Amino acid sequence: MLEALTLPFMQRALIAGLMVAFLASYYGVFVVQRGLGFLGNGLAHAAFGGVALGLLLGREPLMIAVPFTVAVSIAIIWVRHRTTLASDTVIGVFFAVSMAAGIIFLSLKKEYSADAFSYLFGSILAITDTDLKVSAGVVLLALLAQPLWGRWAYATFDRELAISDRVPVVLDEYLLGVLLSVTVVVAVKVVGIVLISAFLVIPAAAARLVVRRFATMTWLSILFGMSSAAFGLWGSYQLDLPSGATIVILQALIFLACLGILTLTRAIAAGRGKA
Questions:
Q1: Exposed e or buried b for every residue in 231-266, given b needs 16+ CB within 10 A?
Q2: pLDDT tens across 149-188, in order?
Q3: How far is CA 33 from the centre of its chain?
Q4: Residue 265 and which of 7, 14, 31, 126 are 20 to 30 A apart at CA?
């Protein structure tokens, strides 16, 4: 690992991977606890539509993808609040429309662009200093919004009670949706559209298996996400494998380990109960 870190592109990849893992794991606990695992996938494909539009216009793709994805996120929340449709249904509609729009945008671009494939599958080893600055800005944004964590957690566990206590639940849902959208767009450059939902869901889901307190779940999710990013990147370098996919496989192994711990704990508890 130390040998790999002497390479500038590996240094940038590690820093970017850690920042994206922190963001995805931090917001992922809300996604998992609220049962919105499909949302990450939907926003990732919305980002694809924005990236494709940026490529068509000849602009920096992420600069177009951010407002595009934020607009889709706001639209999803708006429709959810004004219809009786289930969340996954609304997300599925915008998922399909964004993907279709992205395909149309790419078809209108006459020149071949390899950038589209790098955004689909990620290019963590091609991270630039500008990408690092953008990721750092999003991390700073998350830290500035941290005082709202308590309100978000309250509404996550009991939305109706939070509303009765005059917590601005709807406003917080829009804010959380915007922050999640920006995180997804930043993560797309690192792990790709195909894998970003795994970054949002797997570390948080693994943490939920072994702890009950939401604060502990958040910290454990961040630990799982950041450690898998670091060791996954090292493993991909050693084995010459795709970095994003290797990180996700490591996250899956952590999830299986937590599942094993949960199963063993329940078996022991059941045995004591019979005794």
A1: ebbbbbbeeeebbbbbbbbbbeebbeebeeeeeeee
A2: 999 999 988 888 999 999 899 999 999 999 999 999 888 8
A3: 14
A4: 31
SS3 (DSSP) at 128? coil
Residue whose C-alpha is closest to residue 46's, from 236, 226, 202, 178: 178
**pLDDT tens, position by position, 226-243:** 999 999 988 888 888 888
pTM of the predicted model as reported, rounded to 2 decimal places:
0.88
How many CA atoms lie less than 13 Å away from 10 in the CB half-sphere? 16
- Cα 206 from Cα 122, distance rounded (Å): 23
Q: What is the number of other CB atoms lying within 10 angstroms of the CB of residue 170?
A: 14
Name which of 145, 146, 149, 143 is nearest 214 in CA terms. Answer: 149
Give CA–CA dist 64/69, Å, rounded. Answer: 9
CA nearest 17: which of 172, 148, 125? 125
Classified by CATH at the fold level, domain 4-194 comes out as ABC transporter involved in vitamin B12 uptake, BtuC (1.10.3470)
Distance CA 195, CA 45 (A): 11
Token representation of residue 55: 């490529």
